[in-house]
C-alpha cells in the first residue's frame, strides 16, 4: 500500500536515522512545499471575490431582478460565494498546517466534486442571464443599470473560470492520490 499523509515523512526520518547510525551524514530534511495548497487558496479567494461581486451587482439591479434569469444569477453566485468562503478557509488551513480538515481521501473527492458542481451552476446561471441581457432593451447598452447587469454576468463567468481552474487542480490532486497514496506528487528521486 502506498504511503499516505505523514507516512512518507516518517519513512524518510527513519532512513536518515539509520544512515546516521552507520556513520553517514544525514541530509537536510526536505520541507514539504505547499505550492498546490497556496494555488488553491488563491483560486478560492478569486472565486469568492468574483461570485460575491456578481451577487451584489445582481442584487442591486432592480429592474433585472424582476426577471427569473437574474434571480437565478443572484442565487447561484451567492451559493458559490458561500462555498468559496468555506473552501478558502479550508485551503488556508491546509497551506498553514499541511493537513486537510477532513480525512485526505474524503477532502480530495469533496473538493473535486463540489468544484465541478458549483462551477457548472455558476456557468449555467451566467449563461442564462447573458442571454436575458442580450434579449432585453439593454442590448444597445448605455445606461448604468445595463452596465451593472453586464458586469454581474461577466463576474459570474469569472467565478466559473476560477472554479474550473480549481477543479483542474483538485483533479490533479485526486490523480496523485490514486497513483501515490498522497495528495502531493512524489518528490524527484535523488541518486
Please tell me about this protein's structure:
The chain is mostly helical. Helices cover 75% and strands 0% of the residues. It is built from six helices and no strands. It has helices spanning 7-21, 35-59, 62-65, 68-97, 104-135, 144-180. It is elongated and about 80 Å long. The protein starts with 6 loop residues before the first helix and ends in an 11-residue tail after the last helix. Residues 36-162 form the Casparian strip membrane protein domain. Keywords: Cell membrane, Membrane, Transmembrane, Transmembrane helix.
Keywords:
mainly alpha, 191 residues, 6 helices, elongated
Strand content: under 5%
- Secondary-structure-based class equals mainly alpha
What's the order of the H and E elements? HHHHHH
Helices, by number, come to: 6
Give the averaged pLDDT, no decimals: 84
CA radius of gyration:
22 Å
Stretches where pLDDT is under 50 for at least 5 consecutive residues are 28-32
Largest sheet: none
In total, how many beta strands? 0
Shape from CA axes? elongated
Ends distance: 24 Å
Share of helix among residues? over 70%
Helix/strand layout:
Elements: H1 7-21, H2 35-59, H3 62-65, H4 68-97, H5 104-135, H6 144-180
Helix pairs in contact: 2-4, 2-6, 4-5, 5-6
Amino acid at each position: 500500500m502506498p504511503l499516505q499523509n505523514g507516512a512518507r515523512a516518517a519513512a524518510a526520518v527513519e532512513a536518515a536515522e539509520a544512515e546516521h547510525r552507520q556513520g553517514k551524514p544525514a541530509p537536510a530534511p526536505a520541507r514539504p512545499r505547499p505550492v498546490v495548497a497556496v494555488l488553491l487558496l488563491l483560486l478560492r479567494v478569486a472565486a469568492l471575490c468574483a461570485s460575491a461581486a456578481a451577487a451584489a451587482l445582481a442584487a442591486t439591479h432592480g429592474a433585472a431582478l424582476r426577471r427569473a434569469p437574474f434571480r437565478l444569477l443572484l442565487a447561484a453566485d451567492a451559493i458559490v460565494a458561500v462555498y468559496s468562503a468555506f473552501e478558502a478557509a479550508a485551503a488556508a488551513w491546509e497551506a498553514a498546517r499541511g493537513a486537510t480538515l477532513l480525512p485526505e481521501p474524503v477532502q480530495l473527492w469533496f473538493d473535486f466534486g463540489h468544484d465541478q458542481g458549483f462551477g457548472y451552476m455558476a456557468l449555467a446561471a451566467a449563461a442564462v442571464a447573458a442571454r436575458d441581457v442580450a434579449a432585453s432593451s439593454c442590448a444597445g447598452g448605455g445606461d448604468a443599470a445595463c452596465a451593472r447587469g453586464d458586469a454581474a454576468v461577466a463576474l459570474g463567468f469569472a467565478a466559473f473560470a476560477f472554479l474550473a481552474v480549481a477543479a483542474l487542480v483538485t483533479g490533479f490532486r485526486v490523480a496523485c492520490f490514486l497513483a501515490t497514496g498522497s495528495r502531493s506528487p512524489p518528490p524527484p528521486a535523488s541518486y
